[in-house]
Amino acid sequence: MTDQHNPKADPDPQSNTEKDPADWVTGDEPMTGAQKSYLKTLSEQAHEPDAFAEELTKAEASQRIDALRSKLKL
Question: In DSSP terms, which residues pair with 57 in a beta bridge?
């Protein structure tokens, strides 16, 4: 029997759950419906309508969502 890494036993299980959107395999696909809805809401709340654009990729939408959440202190 070989010792295999068990991610459930990691002392910091969150350490590999966040990836830079630039490193996402599917980052250049169109943003999801959930991202579109959330980004639209955040851009309205932040009074930054230009932060929303229909043609964003998943990675771009994620980065804009993070920036708006930071601005709104969410």
Answer: 30
pTM value?
A: 0.72
Domain ranges across the chain:
26-74
Tokens of 42: 């955040």
DSSP the chain: ------GGG-SSGGGGS---GGG-TTTTSBPPHHHHHHHHHHHHHTT-GGG--TT-BHHHHHHHHHHHHHHHT-
Burial of 3 (0-12, 13-18, 19+ CB in 10 A): exposed
Model confidence pLDDT, tens digit, residues 39-66: 999 999 999 999 999 999 999 999 999 9
